Amino acid sequence: DAGITQSPRHKVTETGTPVTLRCHQTENHRYMYWYRQDPGHGLRLIHYSYGVKDTDKGEVSDGYSVSRSKTEDFLLTLESATSSQTSVYFCAISEGDRGPDTQYFGPGTRLTVL
Amino acid sequence: DAKTTQPPSMDCAEGRAANLPCNHSTISGNEYVYWYRQIHSQGPQYIIHGLKNNETNEMASLIITEDRKSSTLILPHATLRDTAVYYCIVRPSNTGNQFYFGTGTSLTVIP
Predict the structure, then answer these.
(1) Residues B76, B98: contact at Cβ < 8 Å?
(2) Which of A31, A48, A101 comes nearest B93 by C-beta?
(3) A2-25 burial, b if ≥16 CB within 10 A, otherwise e?
(4) Closest by Cβ to A42, choosing from B41, B45, B101
(5) pLDDT tens track of chain A, all 114 residues?
(6) Cα(B50)–Cα(B46) distance, rounded to whole angstroms?
């Protein structure tokens, strides 16, 4: 399995509080992604990064920000958490080389916003 | 990305081959076929991918029809640990694109 860890694995927070999720990789892959998974919606891309300090928005980026100051770490921040952001969040990585760009996923973080 | 169609659920006896079909009739020439699976509450796990030719690795085989409009994932000897939701995804090779996971096929391996 790809060396991807996510922290925390579970978090319960209250509406209006800031939350930061961390994704850490040991594969030195260039690309990192944040997805959320909700029943009936499958996995949806929030943001992704194609290098240190280089990020772009995905399909459902509103209410989220990201930062990548080191190759190995990609942070997802909910500035003011809402109940609609209750979800399971997955980080993924890929090498970003030419040809097929296989993504490998982390174990997930289950976030509950009360 | 091309749309895929998979049966919502399938059963397979333990030790038998599990054949999971996927239709992708609108696939473009530069789009790959990927298969992932997700065991309950875990992150999606990469299984295999292919472009035109059949592919095999330690987990599974991927059979792609000559017209590339459909494919079959084969788990040669299914075990109880293969019970999962299996996703067929078609996407181009350029980087930075998300993987669009549909509803997949829920495979249950029966003892």
Answers:
(1) no
(2) A101
(3) bebebeeeebebeeeeebebebbb
(4) B101
(5) 569 999 999 999 999 999 999 999 999 999 999 999 998 778 899 999 999 999 999 989 999 999 999 999 999 999 999 999 999 999 999 987 666 778 999 999 999 999
(6) 12
Tell me the nearest-neighbour CA distance from B76 into chain A, angstroms: 21
CA distance A16 to chain B (A): 26
Task: Note whether B39 contacts A: Cβ–Cβ < 8 A.
Answer: no
Query: Are B95 and A104 a contacting pair at CB < 8 A?
Result: no
| Residue found by looking up tokens 């990789």 in the block | A25
Measure the CA–CA gap between A51 and A31, rounded to whole angstroms. 6
- B19: distance to nearest CA of chain A, Å? 22
* pLDDT tens track for B76-102: 999 999 999 999 998 876 655 677 888
